[in-house]
Amino acid sequence: MVTAEKEAVTIAKKYANLDKESEFYRYNRDATYFTVAGTTKANKKIYVIVAQKGGKVKVLTQANGKSKNDILTYIWDKKSPSKILNIGLGIYNDVPAWEVSYLNKKKELSYETIQFSDGKVLKSVENI
């Protein structure tokens, strides 16, 4: 993961003018993505999503969608998990999306895939 983060940051600096990294996420659904959150040299807050295979890069303005905290608040309010396992930002069916894995009240593995732009639930899998 340390190597993946370093490579993603290098790509984000090259293709998105990333200046300062604030967070790093791993998203692993149909494909694996590494996402770097941070600011550009112009102080614009961005997410840079890098595909593990092929290295395709997608740059999102943080203000144009839901934040990590927005998504976590939604999960806590609507699903009342016993524990959040992971949150990551990647691409789901060609759409930027957050994926949250968590243990529900019965300690069963569950997932929510939530569209970055508007918070719409794209996929919900519970009680695995």
In short:
By secondary structure, this protein is α+β, with helices and mostly antiparallel strands.
Radius of gyration: 15 Å
Largest sheet entry = 4 strands, antiparallel
The overall pLDDT average reads: 95
Overall tally of structural domains = 2
Overall structural class, as computed from helix and strand content, comes to: alpha+beta
Q: Provide the CATH top-level class of the largest domain.
A: Alpha Beta
Number of helices: 2
- End-to-end Cα distance: 26 Å
Write down how many β-strands occur, each being a DSSP E stretch of 2 or more residues. 8
Determine the strand fraction and express it as a percent band. Answer: over 45%
The third-level CATH topology of the largest domain is Nuclear Transport Factor 2, Chain: A
Low-confidence stretches: none
What would your notes on this structure say?
- This protein is of the alpha+beta class and 128 residues long.
- It folds into two domains: 2-63, Nuclear Transport Factor 2, Chain: A (Roll); 68-125, Nuclear Transport Factor 2, Chain: A.
- It has two helices and eight strands, in the order H-E-E-E-E-H-E-E-E-E.
- It has helices spanning 2-16, 68-79; strands at residues 18-28, 32-40, 45-51, 57-61, 83-92, 95-103, 109-115, 121-125.
- It has a four-stranded antiparallel β-sheet.
- A hairpin with a 5-residue loop joins strand 3 and strand 4 (57-61).
- The longest helix is centred in the N-terminal third of the chain and has 15 residues, at 2-16.
- The radius of gyration is 15 Å and the shape is globular.
- The two termini are 26 Å apart.
- InterPro entries: Cystatin_sf, TseB-like_dom.
- Residues 7-50 form the Cell wall elongation regulator TseB-like domain.
- This is Cell wall elongation regulator TseB-like domain-containing protein.
